[in-house]
From TrEMBL:
It comes from the Bacteria. The lineage of its organism: Bacteria, Pseudomonadati, Pseudomonadota, Gammaproteobacteria, Oceanospirillales. It holds the Pfam family PCuAC. Coiled coil: none annotated. This is Copper chaperone PCu(A)C. The keyword Signal applies. It comes from Halomonas alkalicola. Keywords: Signal. Residues 1-27 form the signal peptide.
Length: 168
């Protein structure tokens, strides 16, 4: 009488194995939402990219590198308060805690695209690759948009990401 239940049991075990395998893959991946690149004047050689990174897994992860064919160099950055003055600093990684999100936004964590290979116009699409501390890469496309900053934390139309930014 066990034999009629055997096909059901095999199907249930196969489904369970697939679900567990899917969770392992998800635990090592990163979801990206609202990716966008700041539109800047045609003479600007730098811009910034913003997005929300979500870690659906049960282990912390970090973005340790970023690359884009739109720029000669792509760096991870943060704004920090130094004696009452906001300054941009390169960071080694952008962490995303398990089950949480990290926002890359004006005035905070962001990606810097330095030495743009061509002017970026509103509506253009920019390819970006994020490299995680696990070695996994995530490719995404971010539209170029005009991004307004409220509160006066950044100066100038390019948000303080102007041409003289090569001091790192």
């Amino acid at each position: 009488m066990l034999y009629p239940a055997l096909p059901f049991l095999r199907t249930a075990l196969a489904g369970l194995a697939l679900a567990l395998a899917s969770q392992t893959v998800l635990a090592q991946s990163l979801a990206v939402e609202n990716a966008q690149v700041r539109a800047v004047p045609p003479v600007s050689t730098t811009t910034a990219a913003f997005m929300v990174l979500t870690n659906p897994g049960d282990g912390d992860l970090a973005v340790v590198e970023a690359h884009s064919p739109a720029a000669g160099t792509t760096e991870l950055h943060n704004h920090v308060d130094v004696d009452g003055v906001m300054q941009m600093r390169r960071v080694d990684e952008i962490g995303v805690s398990a089950g949480a999100s990290t926002e890359l936004a004006p005035g905070g964590l962001h990606l810097m695209l330095i030495d743009l290979v061509a002017p970026l116009h509103e509506g253009d699409e920019v390819e970006i690759t994020l490299v995680l501390d696990s070695g996994e890469s995530l490719e995404l496309t971010a539209p170029v948009r005009r991004i307004e900053v409220m509160g006066g934390g950044m100066h100038g139309q390019d948000g303080g990401h102007g041409g003289g930014h090569h001091g790192h």
